[in-house]
Amino acid sequence: MGKTAEAIAEGVSIASAAARLAIRNRILVETIAHDEPFDVVAFAPFAHDTLTALAEEQEQAAALVKRQRKKAWGRFTDPDGTHDYRDRDMRNLRKRGRQYSGVAQALRRMADDPHVVRTLIEQSRDAAWGDVEANLQRRLRVEGMRPDLDPDYDRMRAARMQSIRLVDLPRLAAHKRHHDEAVTDAGSAAQAVTHAPRISGIDVSELDS
Question: Are the beta carbons of 1 and 92 closer than 8 angstroms?
């Protein structure tokens, strides 16, 4: 299991990475999808809630381990599965419980520290911008690439042409066919109104609705 302090530090590191990922995604949604300006203060509540939710997960894990330890106490038979603990597992379960609780406490301290929250948001912003920058550079390379500079042009040309024949052209033909059918149906309807039948000597088209 390793030393408890080292395990707690590793757990906090993993949880912090998960928090940065969640905040990064939130920044991308708000600033790009919703066209909102970036403001550290605006994202502080979400960062706080994210850290608190991760802490609660660790607390729930610690509570589960505590129940498992109570159930395992005094049982010396062979286990039926991976999570079917016995008395000999008490030490490891107790250590895991301390680790979960330690991570939860550390995350709650982080959530209540404005400096830590701000740093986490700024790191998430940098990660979000890194994603945007990478996508822009990749798109510029694709759109600005000339056939004579693309080493994969000849190899991929056959695949692109096959995609045009098998996907794009049939789709275009189906679209044109549906468009023509709609035009034909509209013309038939107009002709039916123009040449409306006479009922008992009365031209139906002359009747007001």
Answer: yes
- Check residue 199 and give its pLDDT: 42
User: Do you know the residue count of the chain?
Assistant: 209
CB atoms within 10 A of CB 64: 15
Residue 158 and residue 59: Cα distance in Å, rounded? 56
* Rounded Cα gap, residues 47 and 111, in angstroms: 8
108 CB burial (10 A radius; 0-12, 13-18, 19+) = middle
CA distance 52 to 110: 9
User: How high is the mean pLDDT of the chain?
Assistant: 83
Q: What are phi and psi of 21, to 5 degrees?
A: -65, -45
DSSP 88: G
CB count in 10 Å sphere of residue 75: 15
Please return the burial class of 159, using the count of CB atoms within 10 Å of its CB with bins 0-12, 13-18 and 19+.
Answer: exposed
Eight-class DSSP state of 198: E
- List, for residues 4-42, the tens digit of each pLDDT value: 899 999 999 999 999 999 999 999 999 887 888 889 999
